[in-house]
Write a structure and sequence with these properties.
With about 400 residues, the chain is α/β, with parallel strands linked by helices. The chain is about 45% helix and about 15% strand. The protein is globular and about 80 Å long.
Length: about 400
């Protein structure tokens, strides 16, 4: 089969980008021909191309695929419009990003997949019939993440922790650093705002404890690490054999990460690590969550959605119109936010320039100094040093 996989981008090392890479590699290994489409290409696209898989930023000139595997509604819509007779599957990866909304409800989309129960609920709330939604849990590349010794067997690993996030900023580190320090662990930070882990399969086995979510959490568990769920500026529970099933159904994601990053709560979670239990969790992940299982499930989905033959292309005009009507409010909202950001940024820059000039004048002009002091009081009325 020729399977066209869509994504909003293949430029950065993030969740769906790496998911597409692993899916394409798995489909090729199974004897199929994946083709990857994203409007924005980059480092992940080059990785996929290096494996001999076609990657494109345009649908022009592509032969009609046998199956459309859609991620993100705008790129899925483009593919459905380009190939209206091709049966399609739409995958929801998140409950927050606007791109994950199932707005591309074209008739050739015959099944929907959700990577967690939260995503399944999102699809149901959007009006997708429950019998058309498949739960397709995330996994790890067992060829990339080799079996190694769990942290339970390595005293050195138990002294090293990692916060692994593409969302967190360096300023978010403080409660994690304090909690880890109180428990005798050194903390590193990896993600877009920290060290980029180009080969996490080599880096993760250095750590005993990893703070992460979703795919990163699964890869850390597969690497023998204890995992405390964290991201979105919040924290979740320590993953144990007791809560593993429930957390896996939520993809170790946002639905399970609900608490503020309180230092005391983090210290308690770290102190509660049972390293032998963490090793049992790792063994379960390695047994139950190889991504090859997910690829096999998708291949079964492709067979099922293709069994009814080509889709009815005569409805594509009406469906395109309905899609545009559904997406217009989102585009208007984004325009409004962009306009607000522009005006707020311009106001801040104008104020900063004004303050800079005032600071220069205040060196020799008492009136300018008093005006500067008044502005400082207005900006921080609680500062006792500015009173009087």
């Amino acid at each position: 089969m020729i399977i066209l996989i869509t994504n909003h981008g293949l430029d950065g090392r993030a969740g769906t980008e790496l998911y597409v890479r692993d899916l394409a590699l798995g489909l090729k290994a199974a004897g199929h021909t994946p083709v990857c489409f994203a409007p924005v290409l980059g480092i992940v696209a080059e990785e996929i191309r290096a494996a001999g898989i076609e990657v494109t930023d345009t649908l022009d000139g592509l032969a009609a695929p046998d199956i459309l595997h859609g991620h993100h509604h705008h790129t899925t819509a483009l593919a459905c419009l380009a190939f209206p007779q091709t049966p399609a599957l739409f995958v929801c990866h998140g409950v927050l990003p606007w791109q994950e909304a199932p707005l591309a409800q074209f008739s050739n989309i015959r099944r929907y997949a959700a990577v967690s129960e939260a995503c399944r609920r999102k699809l149901l709330d959007a009006g997708v019939p429950g019998d058309r939604i498949m739960l397709r849990l995330n996994g790890f590349d067992s060829g990339r993440f080799k079996r190694g010794e769990p942290a339970a067997n390595d005293a050195g690993r138990k002294t090293r922790a990692l916060l692994f996030s593409n969302i967190a900023q360096p300023a978010d580190l403080l409660p994690f650093m304090k909690a880890c320090g109180a428990q005798g662990l050194a903390l590193d930070f990896a993600g877009r705002a920290g060290k980029v882990l180009g080969t996490p399969e080599d880096e993760l086995p250095r750590y005993g404890l990893v703070f992460a979510k979703a795919r990163a959490a699964i890869e850390a568990m597969a690497s023998g690490c204890a995992v405390i769920l964290a991201d979105y500026g919040k924290i979740g529970p320590l993953v144990t054999t007791a809560n593993f099933d429930a957390l896996r159904q939520e993809n170790f994601g946002i639905a399970a990460i609900t608490d503020p990053p309180d230092e005391a709560a983090l210290r308690e979670a770290i102190a509660g690590i049972d390293w032998d239990d963490a090793a049992r969790v790792s063994a379960r992940v390695r047994a139950e969550a190889p991504f090859a299982n997910t690829v096999a499930d998708y291949l079964a989905d492709y067979e099922a959605i293709g069994a009814d033959g080509p889709a009815d292309a005569s409805r594509i005009g009406a469906e395109a119109s309905a899609y545009l009507a559904a997406i217009l409010p989102h585009l208007s909202e984004r325009d409004a936010l962009a306009g607000r950001l522009y005006h707020e940024t311009k106001t801040r820059l104008d104020r900063d320039r004004e303050l800079a000039a005032l600071i220069v004048r205040a060196k020799s002009d008492p009136a300018a100094f008093n005006e500067l002091l008044e502005r400082a009081r207005w900006l921080d009325p609680s500062n006792a040093d500015l009173k009087g």
